[in-house]
Structures are given as structure tokens and as C-alpha cells.
Amino acid sequence: MFEIMIWLGAAVSVMGLAGLVWCIIQVSRARKAGLSEDELRAAVQAVLPLNMGALFLSVVGLMLVVIGVMLG
Questions:
Q1: Number of compact structural domains in the chain
Q2: Of the residues 7, 20, 37, 52, which has the maximum number of CB atoms within 10 A of its CB?
């Protein structure tokens, strides 16, 4: 049972990491597009909630892994 928790946590962490990479790519594209300061700020603010959600997923996944290892 704890092995399932470890693998599930690893999968959730990878999904969170993928979300963080996606956010980095989106902001990088916005910076390279040569937008004005206000447009760039709006683009970054649009990505911010997704970034926080991806970070939350990564943290929850890592917590699942740690708890699974400690209990297993």
C-alpha cells in the first residue's frame, strides 16, 4: 500500500514539475515577443495562478512520497 503512495506521489510531483516548466516556457515566449511592459505584466499575471497550482501539486506529491517512505 505504501508503495502505491510513493508512486502516486511521484506521479503528482512530475505533473507539477511539468506545469512549472510550461509556465516558464509561457513567460519566456512573452518576453521574447517584445511586448510592452504592461502587456508583459498582464501575461505574467495570467500565468501566475497556474504556476502556484503547479507548485502546490509538486509539494503535495513530494509530501506523499516522504510519508510513503516513512511509513513503509
A1: 1
A2: 20
- This prediction's pTM: 0.87
Q: For residues 11-42, b (16+ Cβ closer than 10 Å) or e, as one string? A: ebbeebeebbeebeebbeebeeeeeeeeeeee
Containing structural domain, residue 54: 2-71
